[in-house]
Automatic annotation (TrEMBL):
Gene Ontology terms, MF aspect: chorismate synthase activity
Protein name according to UniProt: Chorismate synthase
Keyword line: Amino-acid biosynthesis, Aromatic amino acid biosynthesis, FAD, Flavoprotein, FMN, Lyase, NADP
Keyword Lyase recorded: yes
Similarity remark: Belongs to the chorismate synthase family.
Catalytic activity: 5-O-(1-carboxyvinyl)-3-phosphoshikimate = chorismate + phosphate
Function comment: This reaction introduces a second double bond into the aromatic ring system.
InterPro entries on file: Chorismate_synth, Chorismate_synth_AroC_sf, Chorismate_synthase_CS
EC number: 4.2.3.5
Organism for this UniProt entry: Prosthecochloris ethylica
One Pfam family here: Chorismate_synt
List of residues binding FMN: R129, A130, S131, Q257, A258, G302, K317, P318, I319, A320, T321, R343
Subunit comment: Homotetramer.
Cofactor or coenzyme needed: FMNH2
Amino acid sequence: MIRYFTAGESHGPALSAIVEGLPAGMPLSPEDIDNELARRQQGYGRGGRMKIETDRAQVLSGVRFGSTIGSPVTLQISNRDWQNWTTRMAQFDKPQEEIPAISIPRPGHADLTGMIKYGFNDIRPVIERASARETAARVAACSLAKTFLRHAGIQIGSYVSAIGPADGTADPALLDNLLAHGAADLSREADTSCVRMLTKTDEKKAVAAIDKAKEDGDTLGGIIELFITGVPMGLGTYVQHDRRLDAALAAALISIQAVKGVEIGTAFDNARKPGSQVHDEMFIAGSGSPARNTNRAGGLEGSMSNGEVIHLRAAMKPIATLMSPLHSFDVTSMEAHLSHIERSDTCAVPACSVIAEAVVAPVLANALLEKTGGDHFEEVLDRLDAYRKEIDAKFRN
């Protein structure tokens, strides 16, 4: 099964990742990784760091002649900003000059709790690893699983449906049209917008909200809509809690820095309605296969994929660093103080939507591998094709 680990600090020399469990023989190109990294760096409201970095991944192991070889894939992304932090983030020799400790935590960040938990007298080590800069390594690592799924006919796409007060919820007909040939079309359309919304009217509202927040020294969060197409019926299981596909997808999304809520389908709206207005009725289509007119369950029933489009929603809170800081205190003097200011974004919701696409990919890939098995990529594809035909045959009979 696929698993990955990341390492590195926000202002250290590099970020790195190790990805284990990919079957041998999967085609892979540098663009499969670097295009996802470039998408993560885009978006209106990003801060100065994105003007410094141009993320590219160096593959150090696990690939030969453009294909995976079954061994762990090692990736490294250099931090160009490291040259400005070699003294403050020195790894061994402590600088002779004094490096001021950060002792004022930011409300909404890992600062205070991380400092207490790990016994630091300086918040800097917490800032470095808790930073969303780590997601560059995650996007690189997860792009391999996303490539795996794409070759298997499974596509992941997203758009932003809200930034702060600006609502950009897409018209259902527009969404259906974009998803008709796969979720990648949805992402390509969203990528043409600086806020990843689907209409120019919604984009203008979001840009205006971001500008206002920046002027006020404030930050904005938002809502991400995620869609996965081409998923066959029967991935995941109801048998054990730790193998439930819905739980794994939700966990992957909530693991993203600043994401505080996850919804499957129209879950919260469903909770206010009777079952007769919630559950997706089943019909027999002209082809003889099951069909549904609605997808309120978000493509997941009984913790398994039901053959419909998987629809997930993630809520990202506003970034914790405000240029007009909130009230805090100095942990050294225990006196009231305005919170620490660290270089940051005004809004990173568009970037977060790309990260969301990435982190669900290994979850789906593992659910697929659990169903098909296989050590070589062609073996996996053959077994998936046989499974799809088996499903079709059941309903034709």
